[in-house]
C-alpha cells in the first residue's frame, strides 16, 4: 500500500526521536507514570506524545489496563525499531567521541555466573584498567537469558555456557572452556578418586542447582535415567554449603570448587565423560555493528580466550 507524501510528512513531523524514546521507556517500564518520572516529564505529556505517535502511524501502540500498559503487536514492532535507532545513535556518538577524546564510551555486558567467577571478572578488571574511559555495565544472568539479551539489543556482548538454544539473529564465537567436577565432602568415598563417571553419581543424594540453567540442561541430556535430586537450590553457593554439611553431592565447574576446598572441606572430583568439558561462548548481534567501545571489549575478550586456548 502506497502512503501519500502528505501522510509521510505528517509522520516525520510527529515522530521525533524524543517521543520515540519516551514510547520505548513506557514499553520497557510498563508504566506511563514511571516513564514520565524517569524522563522528568509529566505523565499527561507522555500520554499526549504516545497518542500523537498512534495518530501518525494510524495504529494502536499500547493497551492500557488497571496494572499499567503493554505494547500491542504494532507497538512491539515499533519498540524494536526504536531500540535499533537508539543503538545506532549511541554507536554514532561513541565513535565521534572516540575521534574527539580517544577511546571512551560504555559497554553493556551480560554473563552467566560460572564464566564471571572463573575467568571474566579478572578480564573485566584488566579491561577497565586498560581503558578507564569505557564504562562496563555488567549484568549476571543465566545462559539462555544472556543470548536473549543480546538478540533483543539489551546487551552489546554476552558470555554464556553451551549448550543453549541459539537465536538466528546472533553471532557466536569461542571464548573459553571449563570442566565439570563432582563436588563431594572430603570424607566421601569418592573424594580419593582421580576421576568419576557421571552415572556413578546418580546413586548418591543429588543437589541440583537452578533447573533453568545451562548446566542443569546439560546434565539432564547426559543422564541415561531421570535425575531425581534430593535438594533443589537457586545458587552455587548454597549447593556447596549443603555438600559441606554432608547432605549430598552436586556437579559444578571446577573453578567454582577449588577456592573453597579448605574452608568448606569439599573436593572436586573430575568427571571423565566427554560432556564434562563445556564450551564458554561469546556472542553479539553483529561484530560489524558494534560500537567502537563494544568492539574494543569484544576483541579483548576474544584475544584473552585465544591466548589461554
What does the model show?
The chain has 3 domains: 5-83, Orthogonal Bundle (Arc Repressor Mutant, subunit A); 88-176 and 279-307, D-Maltodextrin-Binding Protein, domain 2, CATH 3.40.190.10; 177-278, D-Maltodextrin-Binding Protein, domain 2, CATH 3.40.190.10. The chain has 12 helices and 11 strands. It has helices spanning 5-14, 17-29, 32-38, 43-57, 73-101, 113-130, 143-151, 198-201, 214-222, 236-244, 261-264, 292-307, and strands spanning 62-65, 68-71, 105-111, 134-140, 157-161, 171-185, 207-209, 231-233, 250-253, 266-270, 277-284. Strands 3, 4, 5, 6, 9, 10 and 11 form a 7-stranded mixed sheet that branches. It is elongated. It starts with a helix and ends with a helix.
Short description:
With 309 residues, the chain is of the alpha/beta class. The protein has helices at residues 5-14, 17-29, 32-38, 43-57, 73-101, 113-130, 143-151, 198-201, 214-222, 236-244, 261-264, 292-307; strands at residues 62-65, 68-71, 105-111, 134-140, 157-161, 171-185, 207-209, 231-233, 250-253, 266-270, 277-284. Residues 15-72 form the HTH lysR-type domain.
Amino acid at each position: 500500500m502506497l502512503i501519500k507524501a502528505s501522510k509521510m510528512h505528517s509522520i516525520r513531523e510527529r515522530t521525533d526521536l524524543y517521543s520515540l524514546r519516551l514510547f520505548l521507556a513506557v514499553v520497557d517500564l510498563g508504566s506511563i507514570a514511571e516513564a514520565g518520572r524517569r524522563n522528568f516529564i509529566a505523565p499527561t505529556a507522555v500520554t499526549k506524545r504516545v497518542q500523537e505517535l498512534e495518530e501518525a502511524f494510524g495504529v494502536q501502540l499500547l493497551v492500557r489496563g488497571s496494572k499499567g500498559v503493554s505494547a500491542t503487536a504494532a507497538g512491539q514492532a515499533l519498540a524494536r525499531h526504536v531500540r535499533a535507532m537508539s543503538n545506532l545513535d549511541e554507536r554514532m556518538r561513541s565513535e565521534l567521541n572516540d575521534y574527539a577524546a580517544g577511546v571512551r564510551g560504555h559497554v553493556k555486558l551480560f554473563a552467566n555466573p560460572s564464566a564471571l567467577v572463573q575467568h571474566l571478572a579478572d578480564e573485566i578488571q584488566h579491561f577497565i584498567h586498560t581503558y578507564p574511559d569505557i564504562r562496563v555495565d555488567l549484568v549476571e544472568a543465566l545462559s539462555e537469558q544472556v543470548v536473549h539479551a543480546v538478540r533483543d539489543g539489551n546487551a552489546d556482548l554476552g558470555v554464556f555456557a553451551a549448550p543453549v538454544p541459539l537465536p538466528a539473529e546472533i553471532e557466536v564465537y569461542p571464548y573459553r572452556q571449563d570442566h565439570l567436577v563432582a563436588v563431594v565432602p572430603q570424607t566421601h568415598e569418592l573424594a580419593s578418586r582421580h576421576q568419576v563417571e557421571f552415572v556413578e553419581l546418580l546413586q548418591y543424594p543429588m543437589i541440583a542447582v537452578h533447573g533453568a540453567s545451562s548446566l542443569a540442561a546439560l546434565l539432564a541430556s547426559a543422564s541415561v535415567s531421570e535425575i531425581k535430586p534430593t535438594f533443589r537450590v537457586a545458587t552455587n553457593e548454597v549447593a556447596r554449603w549443603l555438600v559441606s554439611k554432608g547432605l549430598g553431592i552436586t556437579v559444578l565447574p571446577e573453578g567454582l570448587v577449588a577456592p573453597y576446598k579448605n574452608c568448606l572441606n569439599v573436593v572436586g572430583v573430575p568427571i571423565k565423560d566427554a560432556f564434562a568439558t563445556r564450551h564458554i561462548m561469546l556472542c553479539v548481534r553483529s561484530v560489524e555493528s558494534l560500537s567502537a567501545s563494544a568492539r574494543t571489549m569484544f576483541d579483548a575478550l576474544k584475544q584473552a580466550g585465544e591466548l589461554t586456548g
